[in-house]
Amino acid sequence: MPDAEVVDRLARTGAVVTRPAGSTVLDGYPPDWVVEPPCLATLAGVVRVLNDSGVRWRVDARGRNWGYDDARVREPGLIVRLARLDRLELDVELGLATVQPGVTFAQLNTALRDAGARFQLPDPGSGPYTSVLGNALDRGLLAGLGERERHCRDFLVMEGDGTLTRLGWTDAVDARARRALPYPPGPHRHGSMFQTAGYGPIVVELTHVLQPVPAHTTQLAVLAGAEPTEGLIRCWRAMILEDLVSGSILVPPARRRARGVATAHDGLVLDLLVTAGSAALLRAKAVDVQRLARQYGQRLTLQTSTYPDDLRILGGRGDRPEEVGDLAHGLEWHTAAVPFAASVVTAFADAVRAEPLLEDLLWSLRPLDARAAVWLSPFVYRKDDPAGVELLRRRVAAFHRIREGLGLPVYRTGGARAGR
What we know:
Blueprint: H1 4-12, E1 16-18, E2 34-36, H2 40-53, E3 57-60, E4 78-81, E5 88-91, E6 96-99, H3 105-114, E7 119-120, H4 132-137, E8 152-158, E9 164-166, H5 175-180, E10 202-209, E11 211-212, E12 216-223, H6 230-241, E13 247-251, H7 253-258, E14 269-276, H8 279-295, E15 299-302, H9 311-314, E16 329-339, H10 342-354, E17 364-367, E18 372-382, H11 386-405
Parallel strand pairs: 2-4, 3-4
Antiparallel strand pairs: 1-2, 5-6, 6-10, 7-11, 8-9, 8-10, 12-14, 12-15, 13-14, 16-18, 17-18
Helix pairs in contact: 6-10
């Protein structure tokens, strides 16, 4: 634990230093302190104090990506939270949003509506109060966006000595030109900014590419059997390859019930979002979706229900995400990255179904693109139940045995534990 002198030096920088709240995961340790600088100058002072003191630390944006307030550290130390850095700048002509870590999806979309912009950024699974920047660096999944890295540009990074670096650019380059280009000319470090779990470089600002608000949309659903079949996966992939769907997700009945959705269908539901710039194009796309469903022997219907965010799994409220860390139930995310090949997806699904510890797993499958998908499995447990915690450990271990046995990598996991 940082000694009193270090804590006092941190407070003298102008940062707010508090004790941590609860968490929804068991991994690691609760931080000894949470340090929140109100501006970049204060953050630079905090970084210098911490690096001089030798205290172990990491950064997060708002503490609620991929598990809601899963603000933990790998070893005893503290967290520097960047939630108070919340500058937002819009380019409504180019469809770009330059954000600091404190800007949430709710704030961004409200600003876009107020500006009359024809762009949006849909909320991720972790809800509207998640950091746009933090979720992007965690490589979150959004409908229609897939892999987030290609939608982020113009990174402003704070180095270990508190200085700021704009990756790949000089100050002489026009800011709008920087933000418009996907990458700076020549070699760059953009890829190294992702999936560092807050232990890598401190990204204090980036520009996010926004989605155009579609003029016309319709929601369709493929109703399938209890388990994924090769025909279903091939049908789904064909729709993506033909650019007919803007977003899609495959969800079993247990996951729908956990999220508070009435389940009139007792099998899998493949939710499809079809978007178009005109009513005629939308009708044409819907006809092609119907054609593919018939071709692969699938049953197509209108989607009749929407999906609330995963706070429902824990019994939380979408408008009060800060309360989730102190709920009786905890939530961990575990994932596998799967080639979008019908034989591989069904083999993984069959292996999960055959494992008794995973028979009631609340999984979903979402494509990154037409070549790779991510199997996402939330594991829920009671924090005060030792037997339930032990069962959680066994279930997680079983999931990863299957994943490793098929040679599949982890995509992104909230609560992955070391072997202790």
